[in-house]
UniProtKB/TrEMBL annotation, chain A:
Name of the molecule in the record: Cytochrome c oxidase polypeptide III
One record GO biological process: aerobic electron transport chain
The entry's keywords: Cell membrane, Membrane, Transmembrane, Transmembrane helix
Location in or out of the cell: Cell membrane
GO terms assigned for molecular function: cytochrome-c oxidase activity
Domain annotation Heme-copper oxidase subunit III family profile: ranges: 28-207
Domain of life: Bacteria
Gene3D superfamilies: Cytochrome c oxidase, subunit III, four-helix bundle (1.20.120.80)
Topological relation to the membrane, as annotated: Multi-pass membrane protein
Primary localization class, coarse: membrane
Cellular component, GO annotation: plasma membrane
Stretches that traverse the bilayer: 28-51, 71-91, 103-123, 143-166, 186-206
Family from the record: Belongs to the cytochrome c oxidase subunit 3 family.
Automatic annotation (TrEMBL), chain B:
InterPro entries registered for this protein in UniProt: Cyt_c_oxidase_su4_bacillaceae (IPR014257), Cyt_c_oxidase_su4_prok (IPR005171)
Membrane-crossing segments per the record: 28-49, 55-76, 88-109
Compartments, record wording: Cell membrane
UniProt KW Lyase keyword: no
Name of this protein: Cytochrome c oxidase, subunit IV
Organism: Bacillus thermotolerans (Quasibacillus thermotolerans)
Keywords: Cell membrane, Membrane, Transmembrane, Transmembrane helix
Membrane-protein topology: Multi-pass membrane protein
Any one of the GO CC terms: plasma membrane
Amino acid sequence: MNADEKYTPQTWPEGPERATLEGKNKFLGFWFFLGGETVLFASLFATYIALKDKVPSPDHALAKDLFELPLVFVMTMLLLTSSLTSVYAMYHLKNYDFKKMQLWLVITVLLGLGFLGCEIYEFVHYYHAFDHTFTSSAFGSAFYTLTGFHGAHVIFGLAWFIALIVRNAGRGLNLYNAPKFYVASLYWHFIDVVWVFIFTVVYLMGMVG
Amino acid sequence: MVNNQSNTNNPRLDYEYRRRKNAEGMRIQVATFTLMIFFTVISFAAVAAGFSKWFVIPVILLLAVIQVGFQLYYFMHMGEKGHEAPSMFMWSGIGVAFLTILAFVTIIWW
């Protein structure tokens, strides 16, 4: 199959993300990368759990002083919903509906930006209200490394989506870019997987002690 | 090259079948999403209600694991055909992840 060939919804193959050899390779390589990312985040989670509330003196804020449920709930809903909107985008990719796919990807990006805005507000708030910084304690270092690494993944995922949306705007769907969109959506889902454990292990377990 | 993925040698029928199959798949995804939101709300509510931590922590961890399973097996299609290698990569990663966390929570306790 020629990657630049023009298609119609009728001739579009059933698994467009893996219809070319390049697509197959991208798919396999990207899942391998996600397996590695799992290990990377595990080491950050393990470090956080070991160093949680380890502060040099009693005047430092602990997890239960810092975290507030409403903000974390809003962040969780934004990221969870953005995962569903990228599923919608992939649904339209399968149906060869480029415009609708782009629209759902734009919605995904907007939700992701909302999440990022909340996280920036959160970090700034911790700094001003609690003097909780990266260098203030082992707890601070472990907390900002874990949540910050996740936040950096969100930034990268957003930049990736925006680059794909803009670069392919005039091109339409073909077998050259279908694997690119698919792999970016896998990355976005993985960011959500990590967040599920962050909101549970860091925030909710931090609140109950 | 003609790109019909024909099973019936009738491209129009195959096309309609695929559209219906995709739409059905999307309905399952939305149902999965609803369950995920439901689990999230239960987790937050359990913490907000102030139950004993020996009850809350196992429950929210279990809900997180189920939710991540949904994300991997439905949103990311890890259980579908052609995902044997991805499954192996992810489960290997999860195995190492489990060992890492186990080591850190049992060895480091000062």
